[in-house]
């Protein structure tokens, strides 16, 4: 009961924050995406406010993951994929040919649907990003970064005695938190999460959700989710996608209590999708 | 009744069984009960029940008849003594069966007043197109006649039994046709049996090959001790002196083994980087359209017969390297036309498609999620490949390389033409060396008695080679299997 009130209080604070309006971190204007001949997104315009969790919801195949993947140009790796419109990070066009994609992805990190730790040790998994970006000058700094990232991902206490064992040997929930730690280790500004809990059991899901809520303090987070409850629990803003279009976007509280669009209401109450 | 005729009759019975069985199954349908199997399964079950036992019986009967005929003929041959003209019993037996085959072609009238001596019989049979060795003896004729009589008896009894079996099988199958009869499951079981038999044949063949080499090898080791073979450093089998007193020849494996491994090493040195980089390009960088053109083109290399590679080495690469070295040193060609380098390079070219194709499959099998994970952290493509994809694929690639190496070691035609025949033991890659496979070819194509150590050594070499490649293949499979467990 106590917890509930605390949560409600937090929610109220969040609402106030979003009412005040955080700075806009990323912005999409009229974004279209084609996979070969097939169009997946039809002119989506969406703002991602700084240091908040934005949830993208909608039925399967609605384009929410496509939008997410265009935010750090992961769509580039798919053959035949074309992105149109304008996408910005701190008012800078990320599809500008002068932009260094590699650098962009270091600033906009990503956590995937299925935990995908590298077949290396836990330590090496987290150290991977800092190593390639030269974030640590010596071994001691690297150790610090790894420990800090694992702590932020609430994983350090569980794995501190076996940092040099294989990351693939962890449980599914731990693997996903390891992937989050790995993403944090390169100090990104934005973290994109593509259904991060869909392969996890409820307990592991709860832990990851708790973690997302904590990460909000330092990072801007965009999360794709199929779970309405999850969107309600972790996000401050929610965007509803349907058939490659943005149906509606607003404060999560408002979206779940009084959506303006009928489609949103139907989806949230489980009438389709 | 010939075996062929019996087979035709059995097949006819079985085919008739198929149609009757199917018909009967159709006629039994249409009650309240749902039929267990479709009509054609009943048909097939009758077919198999009829044909399978009969065909198996024919096979066993034919084998048993052969053994029985030989036994009874041997029993009738006169006891062998020191002055028996013919060298061995098997030769004697061969002559008897030759005469028997000839007698088969005679007309009934000719057979009625058969000549009693071999001298008269030989021209008669020769006129029928059966040539016989001149050492034939008179006592062989009655044995051959007996042989033919036994053959005719055995084949007619066997034929009748086979046909009876086929009919009985058909009746058995037909009697079982019923709405709820599980013909489908029965057919399934027989298909399983056939598949097991097919893989069994492959394994048995391997065992047969090993055994046949093993026996010859043992004979070889009776005249040359294994320690001088495995540890001898001189290869000098002495073709010319074969048989003539005292000179045994030296059969040292070491120079051949060294040459084999050296040439394979040079080949791998050439093939591994090229093949691996090609694989990385195709698996990671090439667009689908480029890949669909380049990959088949690269695999054309694998389709070139190795003798053609040998030619290429002999007439193009070898002279080119020799002239190149002459030009570099100003006159003296320090690279011989036939050398470790020539053979190694050409063999390396041959191996490129194996390395690239196997590695390509393995690299593609690394889950895409790992690439996404690495790219999502802001690493470049080559960083991703170097630090994530290749380490993940490494066990598989090592396995692939071992498979390729065992091919390099067993390769024959390229080295026969490009490596030379001199069994040198040196470390200069510009000189000629020879390999185990080249020496096997030399020893077996020589004009020598088959039971001399000079020829038998080929079997010992072959068996050694077999065990080397077998060990490498097993090791490679072990590694590949271990790798698979990681991702599935």
TrEMBL record, chain A:
GO biological process per UniProt: phosphate ion transmembrane transport
Read off the Gene3D superfamilies from this record.
P-loop containing nucleotide triphosphate hydrolases
Q: Which SUPFAM superfamilies match?
A: P-loop containing nucleoside triphosphate hydrolases
Instruction: Answer yes or no on keyword Iron-sulfur.
Output: no
Q: Which GO terms describe its cellular component?
A: membrane
> According to the lineage, what is the superkingdom?
Bacteria
Q: Which residues form the ABC transporter domain?
A: 26-268
**Pfam families registered for this protein in UniProt:** ABC_tran (PF00005)
Q: Does the keyword Protein biosynthesis apply?
A: no
Output one GO MF annotation: phosphate transmembrane transporter activity
Which keywords belong to this entry? Answer: ATP-binding, Nucleotide-binding, Phosphate transport, Transport
Q: What's the family?
A: Belongs to the ABC transporter superfamily.
Q: What is this protein called?
A: Phosphate ABC transporter ATP-binding protein (PhoT family)
- Source organism per entry reads Phyllobacterium bourgognense
The opening ranks of the lineage are: Bacteria, Pseudomonadati, Pseudomonadota, Alphaproteobacteria, Hyphomicrobiales
UniProtKB/TrEMBL annotation, chain B:
- Membrane topology summary: Multi-pass membrane protein
Q: Which PROSITE patterns match?
A: ABC_TM1
Q: Does the keyword Transmembrane apply?
A: yes
All copies of the ABC transmembrane type-1 domain together span 257-476
GO terms of biological process kind: phosphate ion transport
Task: Extract one GO molecular function annotation from the record.
Answer: phosphate transmembrane transporter activity
The record ties this protein, via Pfam families, to: BPD_transp_1, DUF3708
Q: Which InterPro entries is this protein grouped with?
A: MetI-like, MetI-like_sf, Phosphate_PstC, PstC_N
* Transmembrane recorded as keyword: yes
User: Can you tell me where the transmembrane regions are?
Assistant: 6-21, 42-64, 157-179, 191-215, 261-285, 297-321, 333-355, 388-409, 456-480
- Per its UniProt record, what CDD domains does this chain match? TM_PBP2
Name its cellular compartments: Cell inner membrane; Cell membrane
Q: Could you name the Gene Ontology cellular component terms for this entry?
A: plasma membrane
Just give the chief location class: membrane
In terms of superkingdom, the source organism counts as: Bacteria
Keyword field:
Cell inner membrane, Cell membrane, Membrane, Phosphate transport, Transmembrane, Transmembrane helix, Transport
Belongs to which family?
Answer: Belongs to the binding-protein-dependent transport system permease family. CysTW subfamily.
Functionally, this protein is described as follows: Part of the binding-protein-dependent transport system for phosphate; probably responsible for the translocation of the substrate across the membrane.
Q: Which PANTHER family match?
A: PHOSPHATE TRANSPORT SYSTEM PERMEASE, PHOSPHATE TRANSPORT SYSTEM PERMEASE PROTEIN
What's the protein called, per UniProt?
A: Phosphate transport system permease protein
């Amino acid at each position: 009961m106590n917890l509930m009130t605390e949560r409600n209080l937090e929610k109220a604070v969040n609402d106030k924050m979003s009412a005040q309006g955080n700075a806009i971190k990323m912005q999409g204007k009229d974004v279209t995406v084609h996979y070969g001949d097939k169009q997946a997104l039809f002119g989506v315009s969406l703002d991602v406010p700084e240091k908040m969790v934005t949830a993208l919801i909608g039925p399967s195949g609605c384009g929410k993951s496509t939008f997410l993947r265009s935010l750090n140009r992961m769509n580039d790796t798919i053959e035949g994929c074309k992105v149109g419109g304008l996408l910005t990070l701190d008012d800078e066009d990320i599809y500008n040919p002068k932009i260094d994609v590699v650098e962009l992805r270091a600033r906009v990190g990503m956590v995937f649907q299925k935990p995908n730790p590298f077949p290396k040790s836990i330590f090496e998994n987290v150290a991977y990003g800092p190593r390639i970006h030269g974030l640590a000058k010596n071994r001691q700094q690297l150790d610090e970064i790894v420990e800090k990232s694992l702590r932020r991902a609430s994983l350090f206490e569980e794995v501190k005695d076996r940092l040099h064992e294989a990351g693939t040997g962890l449980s599914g929930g731990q693997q996903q938190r390891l992937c989050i730690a790995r993403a944090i280790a390169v100090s990104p500004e934005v973290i994109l999460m593509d259904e991060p809990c869909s392969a996890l059991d409820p307990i592991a899901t709860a832990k990851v959700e708790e973690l997302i809520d904590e990460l909000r303090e330092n990072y801007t987070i965009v999360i794709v989710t199929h779970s309405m409850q999850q969107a309600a629990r972790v996000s401050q803003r929610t965007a509803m996608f349907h058939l490659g279009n943005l149906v509606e976007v607003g404060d999560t509280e408002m979206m779940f209590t009084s959506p303006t669009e009928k489609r949103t209401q139907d989806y949230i109450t489980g009438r389709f999708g | 009744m010939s075996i062929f005729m019996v087979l035709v009759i059995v097949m006819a019975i079985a085919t008739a069984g198929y149609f009757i069985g199917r018909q009967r199954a159709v006629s039994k349908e249409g009650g309240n009960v749902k039929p267990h199997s479709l009509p054609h399964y009943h048909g097939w079950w009758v077919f198999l029940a009829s044909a399978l036992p009969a065909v198996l019986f024919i096979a066993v009967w034919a084998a048993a008849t052969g053994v029985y005929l030989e036994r009874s003929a041997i029993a009738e041959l006169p006891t062998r003594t020191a002055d028996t003209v013919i060298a061995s019993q098997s030769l004697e037996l061969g002559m008897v069966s030759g005469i028997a085959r000839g007698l088969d072609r005679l007309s009934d009238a000719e057979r009625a007043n058969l000549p009693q001596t071999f001298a008269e019989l030989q021209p008669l049979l020769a006129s029928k197109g059966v040539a016989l060795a001149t050492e034939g003896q008179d006592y062989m004729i009655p044995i051959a006649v007996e042989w033919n009589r036994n053959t005719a008896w055995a084949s007619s009894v066997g034929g009748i039994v086979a046909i009876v079996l086929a009919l009985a099988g058909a009746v058995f199958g037909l009697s079982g046709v019923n709405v709820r009869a599980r013909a489908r499951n029965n057919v399934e079981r027989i298909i399983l049996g056939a598949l097991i038999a097919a893989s069994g044949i492959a394994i048995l063949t391997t065992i047969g090959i090993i055994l046949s080499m093993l026996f010859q090898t043992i004979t070889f080791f009776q005249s040359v001790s294994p320690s001088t073979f495995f540890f001898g450093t001189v290869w000098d089998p002495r073709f010319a002196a074969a048989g003539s007193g005292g000179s045994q020849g030296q059969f040292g494996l070491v120079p051949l083994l060294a040459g084999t491994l050296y040439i394979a090493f040079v080949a791998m040195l050439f093939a591994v980087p090229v093949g691996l980089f090609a694989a990385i390009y195709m698996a990671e960088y090439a667009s689908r359209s480029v890949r669909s053109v380049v990959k088949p083109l690269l695999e054309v290399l694998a389709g070139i017969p190795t003798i053609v590679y040998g030619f290429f080495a002999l007439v193009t690469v070898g002279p080119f390297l020799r002239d190149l070295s002459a030009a570099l040193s100003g006159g003296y060609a320090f690279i011989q036309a036939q050398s470790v380098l020539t053979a190694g390079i050409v063999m390396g070219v041959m191996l490129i498609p194996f390395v690239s194709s196997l590695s390509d499959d393995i690299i593609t099998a690394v889950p895409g999620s790992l690439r996404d994970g690495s790219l999502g952290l802001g690493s470049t493509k080559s960083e991703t490949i170097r630090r994530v994809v290749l380490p993940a694929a490494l066990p598989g690639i090592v396995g692939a390389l071992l498979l390729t190496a065992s091919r390099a070691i067993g390769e024959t035609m390229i080295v026969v033409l490009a490596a030379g025949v001199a069994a040198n033991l040196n470390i200069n890659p510009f000189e000629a060396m020879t390999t185990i496979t080249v020496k096997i070819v030399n020893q077996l194509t020589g004009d020598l008695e088959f039971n001399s150590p000079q020829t038998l050594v080929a079997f010992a070499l072959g068996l050694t080679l077999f065990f080397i490649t077998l060990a490498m293949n097993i090791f490679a499979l072990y590694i590949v299997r271990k790798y698979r467990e990681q991702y599935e």
